Amino acid sequence: MIAKIRILLAVLFIAVVTLMFLPLQVLLLKFRLPWQNRLPRQWHRLALWALGVRVTAHGAPSPERPLLIVANHASWLDILALGSIADVTYVAKAEVRDWPVFGLLARLQRSIFIEREQPRKTQVQANDMAERLNEGDIVVLFPEGTTSDGNGLLPIKSSLFAAATAAAAHSPSGTVHVQPVAIAYTRVHGMPMGHYNRPLAAWPGDVELMPHLLGVLKEGALDVEISFGTPVDVTTTTNRKILSAEAEGQIYHMLHKMLRRRPH
């Protein structure tokens, strides 16, 4: 009974906050005001508070621009967690645009929608990302291409790293900064989550969204850690396979360090 009341209160709180923020964000987007990137961060923080998810950051996003963040992807919670730390724009698969509620939220955060099943459009989509990077947006790319079980890193796809070299061609400095980031779900109710309990937070692609969302609401006490790696400077001559290998290595080591860390 207590769990049901908690879920109801959390849902009501997020709904009220969303209805308050939505018309304001629409106006900010319409007139291209600076807070169009900042308001979503406040929404993410409030939503995480209602869900009972605590975020701990190790390091911070690079102050250099243009900045492309590449991160592992284990859950829809990744969006809220990273979005609560920095004013970011996400790269999302095209079908997300039409999802109920989540699609609207993605559009309001100015997400960049791409069609991964259309290789011929890769360069066009990379150019779209490059344009946003050179406008000063922090763009977040999940190069695994799907969500994992949170216990490891899936193979990274190098194709969309082309956005970094495309942006470098028009960057005033001739350089784009690519920062690897690792996201790890480490505790539930203050206790180490462990391999077996990671699905409480992780959302692999074959798991339905609503039951998983209700499961997170029911637990109400998850810890997520985010580690920011060393940015890699990218120019038009950078080999994207070498770049993706460097990013993959950094993400792998940061992720497993957090997963193995024991609470004091």
Description:
By secondary structure, this protein is an alpha/beta fold. It has one domain. It is built from 9 helices and 9 strands. Strands 1, 2, 3, 4, 5, 6, 7, 8 and 9 form a 9-stranded mixed β-sheet that branches. α1 runs antiparallel to α2 and α1 packs across α8. The model has no long low-confidence stretch (mean pLDDT 91).
User: What is the number of helices?
Assistant: 9
Order of helices and strands: HHEEHEHEHEHEEHHEEH
Largest sheet: 9 strands, mixed
Mean pLDDT reading: 91
Low-confidence stretches: none
Alpha carbon gap, first and last residue: 33 Å
Percent of residues in β-strands: 15-25%
General shape: globular
Helix % is 40-55%
Overall strand count? 9
What's the Cα radius of gyration?
18 Å
Number of domain modules: 1
Task: Give a quick set of tags describing it.
single chain, 264 residues, alpha/beta, nine-stranded mixed β-sheet, 9 helices, 9 strands, 44% helix
